[in-house]
Amino acid sequence: MSTVTAISTPNAVGGIAVIRISGEKSLEIAEKVFRPAGHKKVSEMSGYTCAYGIAYDGTERLDDCILTVFRSPHSYTGEDVVEISCHGGLYVTRRILRAVLKNGAENAEAGEFTKRAYLNGKLDLTQAESVMEIISARGERELKMAENLREGMTYRKVKKCSEKLMKMLGDLGAWADYPEEDIPEVSSENLCKELETVRKELSALIENYDSGRIIREGISSVIIGRPNVGKSTLFNCLSGCDRSIVTDIAGTTRDVVEESVRLGDITLRLADTAGIHETDDIIEGIGVNIAEKLIESSELVIAVFDGNCPLTEDDLKLIKRLDNKKCIAVINKSDLEICLDTTEIEENIQQIVYLSAKENDGIEKLKKAVEVVFEINENSFSSAVAVNERQKKCIDSALSCVETAVSALKNGEFLDVVNVIIDEAEQYLLSLTGEKVTDAVVDEVFSRFCVGK
Ligand code: GDP
Question: What is the pTM of this model?
Answer without folding.
Answer: 0.70
